[in-house]
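Q: Give me the 3D complex with A1CAB.
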Amino acid sequence: MCVIGCGTMGEAIVGGLMRAGWLEPDRVVVTARRASVAERLHERLGVAATTDNLAACQGAQVVLVCLKPQRFAKILDNDAMREALAGKLLISIAAGVTLSSLAQWLPQTALIRAMPNTPCLIGEGMTVLGRRDAGPTAASDEQLALAKRIFDSVGVTAEVEPKLMDAVTSLNGSGPAFVYVMLEAMADGGVMMGLPRDVAVTIAAQVFRGAAGMVLDTDLHPAALKDQVTTPAGCTIAGILTMEDGRIRSVLARTIQEATKVAGSLG
Ligand SMILES: NC(=O)C1=CN([C@@H]2O[C@H](COP(=O)(O)OP(=O)(O)OC[C@H]3O[C@@H](n4cnc5c(N)ncnc54)[C@H](O)[C@@H]3O)[C@@H](O)[C@H]2O)C=CC1
Ligand SMILES: O=C(O)[C@@H]1CCC=N1
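A: Here is the predicted complex, encoded as structure tokens.
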């Protein structure tokens, strides 16, 4: 396997794969733009690291591209790369780089788009996969299963139609940042009411973790879970009405809508 552009996300995924025992260090090569960065990656991850993207792709069966969207064309759209990647599986995690663009550059490569998020770093990621259902660049069921195994090692995976990748880029890829803003704001409220900052942040983070677990581990709708907390004439409903006065639901939903629009323009 090779990881082209091994930055924040690439390192999270490679680290997760090795921790899960899924990938031996001698089975992966990672790339970076600068030799000093490659050297540091080699030291941190214990894997081969190079600045030579072409050689890395030539020696790999599976190629995970973790470059920023604007770097894709320069690195992938050339004959040497087309030849190196023909008949192989390429998985791109970039926002906004469509399967159509990838197929134009690499018409003989099996292609999968994946949208992971930074909690992959701690094995709590969510990754959403998309592939074309026909044509020379459509990944096979076996290739999709392989991609799923890769990302299952750093969290949970799901599949959507390719046309929904911008929506999952926003909800899933950007989602952690939106949660951090909400978490920080709730902790600020605790600080305002006298809690020490570290205590407030720990409580807020555990509230998000616990509440998310309740949604995932029970069959209950979020609204039913909210009702469990909301004592008549109690403090929770007082807080919820304040949230609704601030139009928090439409603000959050529109956040996903706006980020989806921008995600679609990044490729
Ligand atoms: N950061 C996030 O939360 C998420 C990012 N993504 C997508 O993942 C991709 C990577 O994002 P990050 O890891 O955050 O970015 P990053 O900037 O940390 O990683 C990109 C890496 O590419 C390397 N690079 C640049 N030019 C290169 C070249 N010519 N050859 C080889 N390597 C080169 C850089 O050294 C850098 O380490 C982006 O396309 C982004 O849309 C997807 C989901 C979540
Ligand atoms: O903000 C971005 O463009 C990237 C894609 C998803 C998360 N971060």
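A quick observation: Residues 4-10, 31-33, 37, 53, 66-69, 71, 75, 93-95, 115-118, 173 surround NAI (ligand 1) (CB under 6 Å).
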